[in-house]
Putative membrane protein (Lacibacter cauensis), 396 residues
Amino acid sequence: MQQPLSVSKRITSIDLLRGTVMIIMALDHVRDYFHADAFLYDPLDLAKTSPALFFTRWITHFCAPVFIFLAGTSALLSGQKKSKKELSLFLLKRGAWLIFLELTLITFLWNFDLAFTNIYFIVIWTLGISMVILAALIHLPVKFIFVIGLVLVAAHNLFDQVHVPGNSLKAFGWSLLHDQMFFTWQGKNILVGYPVLPWIGVMALGYCFGTLFTAAYSVQQRKKLLLLIGGTAVALFIIIRCINVYGDPVPWSTQSSPFYTFLSFIKANKYPPSLLYVLMTLGPAILFLAFTENTANKISNIISVYGRVPMFYYLTHIFLVHLFAMLAAEFFTDFSWKAWILKQPLWFAEDLKGYGFSLSVVYLVWIFIVVALYPLCKRYDRYKINHKEKWWLSYL
């Protein structure tokens, strides 16, 4: 019988997937800062978008769910070397640190505004609060964690029509849980972009998923299970979407052509992530793990570097994208670099209408930034490997 994979091999397999989605993630953020239509309409608006723009946005849907799901998986794997108490304390502290980071440094990197006019509760906030909740959940049996995760992901769409209007604390609390909204407070624009309830479920399921990468499963057993789980998720997405009754707040509809009808079919809601959104993204991601577990070549090694230093990459890429947008505005458009000191949320900045470049420029800038970050990521990765005694590295 084939022996189980070593820990290093398991991590390489997971890092390849994480690195892939981190690279794709940068494309979405470059589009946010550079594309001429970014401040005019939603790239998934079928009445206005083009196929190229639609898929430029749609492909990045895989990033957040895979990132948060694998954070849960990594928690399970790191827990193999820690006691439950130690792992719980680590998740609690790291989650609190990520929330603090989101509301301070990361918010600044998005806006370059020392006045912090905009405050974002987006992906790193969700990652942090999900870790805090997971710190408590890990004391339960894995089967109970699985049920909780499954219920949160599969049943939260029952609340799609529940809204708490207004600018009240009650509305803000509900928004943090399940309803993307804007708020104002003492001159601040507050965007709750990632309601956390289903994301907690995604991380909990990722934690349970991590058991497949322990010594209890051989390579062959794991691959069969990954194919079964991933294939089932994809099949469920197709079946539930065809029924068109539950699983997403916006049903698909017949469009002007069969191709655009297909786009309507695969357009699932991310804020918060619907059941169909999770199935659509995590299903193929799990299949990716099944088919790439034994992959080891120059390209996979390069991609894995990004996956081993995700927070370092995340912070540096936002800074570079924003900095280059500022320079581009100053030297290649009629806008001043000061236009990129944002006083309005980036994705709804009325002041930036008329700024931007073609989609081809977006792709060129994206490739340049990803390539430019590789030596920095590789160097930081090597530093982490050579200085495992430095506790603070586990928080970045």
